Amino acid sequence: MRFTINGSKREADPDIRASLLDLLREEFRLTGTKKGCDHGQCGACTVLVNGRRINACLTLAVMHQEDDIVTIEGLGSADNLHPMQAAFVRHDGYQCGYCTPGQICSAVGMLDEVAKGWPSHVSDDLSSPVLDEAEISERMSGNLCRCSAYPTIVDAIREVHDA
Amino acid sequence: MKTFNYERVASPEAAVAAGGRFIAGGTNLLDLMKLGVETPERLVDISRLDLNTIEEKDGGFLVGALVPNSDLAADPRVIANYPVLSRALLAGASGQLRNKATTGGNLLQRTRCYFFYDTHAACNKRVPGSGCDALGGFNRIHAILGASEQCIATHPGDMPVAMRALDAAVVTLRPDGDRRRIPLADFYRLPGDTPHIETVLESGELITHIALPALPPGARQLYRKVRDRASYAFALVSVAGVIAVENGTITHAALAFGGLAHQPWRDPAVEAALIGQPPIEAAFDAAATALLKDARGHGDNDFKIPLARRVLIAALRDLTGEPA
Ligand SMILES: Cc1cc2nc3c(=O)[nH]c(=O)nc-3n(C[C@H](O)[C@H](O)[C@H](O)COP(=O)(O)OP(=O)(O)OC[C@H]3O[C@@H](n4cnc5c(N)ncnc54)[C@H](O)[C@@H]3O)c2cc1C
Ligand code: SF4
Ligand code: FES
Ligand code: FES
User: How far apart are CA A48 and CA A154, in angstroms?
Assistant: First the structure.
């Protein structure tokens, strides 16, 4: 099976039952993407597929042949951080860091949704949502943080949005 | 997870000919397969079928079964014509899940009954004839209307509740090539003594579209969802309402409820209590009484009876009061 992962063409022959998450971690050794619950409940496995954030644990690898997949490793590197990674560092948007790759990928996908004008559950006006703190919390509710670093996560995302 | 055969199909015709279980977003089916609750032998991947557009048709709209929940909620035409639908979708799941979940898959998502998920428990829905551990067990999220002695599960979806209030219809393709159009009112079954059969879909029948009809001009719409936390939780009780008031009289009322029954619940008696009446508390009370006259709690979910009353009355106030 062929995939585009972080901009490179990659091939693998995973078990038919492998989730996209297991493909990334076990076949491609991209262990930045984390497994929390394996049931779509925590967001630790969030990656960008064809530009959209999804839970890698609730989709089959075989269904993503030829797709364009971006993981935390593809967003930036230690010496060339993505603006969202840099903002998380600046604001201490984590404690243990386990949820962080998922938070960052989710935040990047989320700001893209905001740029497209997508509303959320807390938008007063569905046609022109404004990204305040309540909006960020609602839009990021699919990413749990066991250390409860939520306030600084929101600060980091807000800084990238306002930049 | 039990292994399976996998095939990706290129057309709806090929999908129905393939003879297997459809997988669209996979967010419900894979969850259940990992737990051994669902054990399909053959998965037919319909995720790349060309059924992902929203088109105007007969004054209403035709939504492809593969339109993701996110896209449906954010579509300017849906926001303009069916804000109750956008609101219901946005109240469900998370941003990541809505990006993957599809319109057809959302309609067919299965109950969140704890015992249905637990392969060690007795559950007539999972294993017909095995019993029901929710009756007499912990049943806080369970049904108060339309349940049976065999099953008291609820349909967990938000989007289907809005679609029920909008009088949507499901358009399908059958393996014999026939197409049918099934009003959502006839689509879901009550549990009765066959809780494992949840809809009128036949084996191998593919949902291709959902049809949304035009609404009466001036109708106001609302989706109100009550849950254990403010986001990313299933409804305990929800209501989708579409109401029109002309010259001080309610002329159109469509009210559907989530969290109460095995299907998005709608009862003509509720609407009859409102239509022709002025939008006043006495009418709202009568509507709530009509809704709940046959309601029955099972212990842990008794609270849903007064909660449903309050949620309905609050929704009716919002729908008929001064616009915010
Ligand atoms: C953590 C979590 C929280 C959630 N919270 C909510 C919530 O608050 N509210 C809510 O409403 N939902 C919620 N959901 C459920 C989610 O909305 C559903 O999982 C999703 O809508 C299912 O769509 P899908 O395309 O992924 O379906 P799939 O998993 O692909 O399929 C589901 C079922 O539909 C069948 N199917 C799919 N498409 C078709 C078709 N075109 N024709 C015939 N059969 C078809 C499949 O065979 C399968 O039986 C939540 C899910 C998770 C994991
Ligand atoms: S309520 Fe229905 S789904 Fe739940 S255990 Fe009983 S039979 Fe199974
Ligand atoms: S591991 Fe995917 S959502 Fe938790
Ligand atoms: S930083 Fe520890 S789980 Fe979020």
Answer: 20
Domain count of the fold of chain B: 2
A59: Cβ below 6 Å to ligand 3? no
Q: Which two tokens stand for residue A92?
A: 């201490």
Neighbours of B204 (CB within 10 A): 18
Q: How many CB atoms are closer than 10 A to CB B272?
A: 14
Domains of chain A: 2-73 (3.10.20.30), 83-162 (1.10.150.120)
Q: Which residue type does A7 have? A: G
What global pTM score does this model have? 0.98
Residue contact B95–A113, C-beta within 8 A: yes
d(CA B319, CA B315): 6
Q: Point out the residue among B23, B30, B99 whose CB comes nearest to the CB of A53.
A: B99
Secondary structure tally for chain A: helices H, strands E: 6, 5
Is B246 among the domain residues? yes
* Atom 3 of ligand 3, nearest CA residue: A40
Task: Look at ligand 4, atom 4, and give the residue with the nearest C-alpha.
Answer: A145
Question: If you average pLDDT over every residue of chain A, what do you get?
Answer: 97
Minimum Cα–Cα distance from A126: chain B residue: B79
When scoring B35, B89, B94 by the number of chain A Cβ atoms within 10 A, the one with the most, hence best to mutate, is B94
Give residue-wise pLDDT tens across range B213-260: 999 888 999 999 999 999 999 999 999 999 999 999 999 999 999 999
Percent of chain B at pLDDT exceeding 70:
100
